[in-house]
Amino acid sequence: EAGVAQSPRYKIIEKRQSVAFWCNPISGHATLYWYQQILGQGPKLLIQFQNNGVVDDSQLPKDRFSAERLKGVDSTLKIQPAKLEDSAVYLCASSPRLAGGKNTGELFFGEGSRLTVL
Amino acid sequence: AQKITQTQPGMFVQEKEAVTLDCTYDTSDPSYGLFWYKQPSSGEMIFLIYQGSYDQQNATEGRYSLNFQKARKSANLVISASQLGDSAMYFCAMREDPNAGGTSYGKLTFGQGTILTVHP
After folding, report:
1. What is the sign, positive or negative, of the torsion defined by CA atoms of B29, A102, B113, B77?
2. A45, A97, A108 ranked by CB distance to B104: nearest
C-alpha cells in the first residue's frame, strides 16, 4: 500500500514570495490534515479536511495561507506572501474514515515538505 | 492551556536499558485516544502505540508499552531494551472524541516532544 506522498521535499524562497505544497493521501482515506512543524516543536494542525470539506481551520493564518482538497483526494497548501516565521516542515497526514473496530484513528504521515524563507 | 505536556526536553539511556518518556494530558472528554510517535532525524513520523481512554489494559507493542494512569492523566511511554536506532524525537499526542461513536476521527494534538539519545 502506497503511503502519503508529498512534494516538493525542500523549498527555499525569499520572503513575500509564494509557495505551494502538494499532498496525495493513502487511497481510501477520507480525512486529510496539514500540520506545521517548526524546528524543535511538535506539529501544529493548520487544517483538517473530511473528504473535500473543511472540518477545522481554526489555526490556519487565513490572510496568507490557503488550502484546498478538490474531489476529496489530493490537496494543495499555499502560502502567499511568505514570512520568515513560516520556515518549517509542512506535514500532510491522512486517516481512514470509519471509527470503531480495530481502527485507532492513527494518522499516517508523509515525509514532509521543508520550507526555508530567507 | 496546554493539552499535552512533555516535561523532558531530552533523555539519555544506555543501550539495552529501559527508559520512560513522560506525558501528561488535559481533557474533559470521557472518550479520547493517546498516541506516541517517533520522529527520526530523517523527519518522518512513525506511529508507535495507541491507548484508548476506555481500554482496561495498558497497550503494548513489541518493546514499547504505555503506562496509562487515567486518574493522573498520564500516558508514559516505556521503551525496553533500548537500541541505538531508538535515538529520535518522541511525541505524545491526544485525540479528543466529542462525538464518540461517530464516523470520523478528530485531529491529534501533539506535545513538544522529547529527544531520546541512546548511548552504546
Report:
1. positive
2. A97
